[in-house]
Amino acid sequence: xxxxxxxxxxxxxxxxxxxxxxYVNCWGSEPEPLVFQEGSADELPSEFRVLRFAPNERRKxxxxxxxxxxxxxxxxxxxxxxxxPRQNDEVVELLVVTSHYHRTGEWLGLGxxxxxxxxxxxxxxxxxxxxxxxxLDGPKLEWLELGAVKVxxxxxxxxxxxxxxxKKAKGLSALERKFEKTNFNYLDPQRxxxx
Length: 195
Known about the structure:
about 30% helix; alpha+beta; eight-stranded mixed beta sheet
């Protein structure tokens, strides 16, 4: 029987490899690991990477995801992913700065928001991120159990400042209902605000 992280001691290396395999099993393709060396990236765990998944027959978009933003000893390990209509490695920086904020500032989780400090895409009104359930992939992606360690995988959705203000005033469920009602296109950098 092959050894798995749940049947032996979970090391940093085996933990990170289990996260990568989880994405591959869910999304059906091998990613390209990207290393972001600018700014405060050196304050992130040494194993931290952003993975870039190219479109394939099952997924028609580019997908960027963190691996080892969380560490195996975290109380609530979490990883994030973001979808893009085209290859654009500027979004890598967004995942890096969000991961950095999570590890060195405030712990993030479902329903939390982050200020990107710039549009997620040139010309976009979306300059914030909302941490949401992985609605496109469901529970298969959302949870990975590695023995006693349970890792949560969540979706970082680019949103506008007015959408964040609406969420603060009315709640996450109200904003998500607005998204559903308007059938918002999360891949369109030029999409208008839903509120």
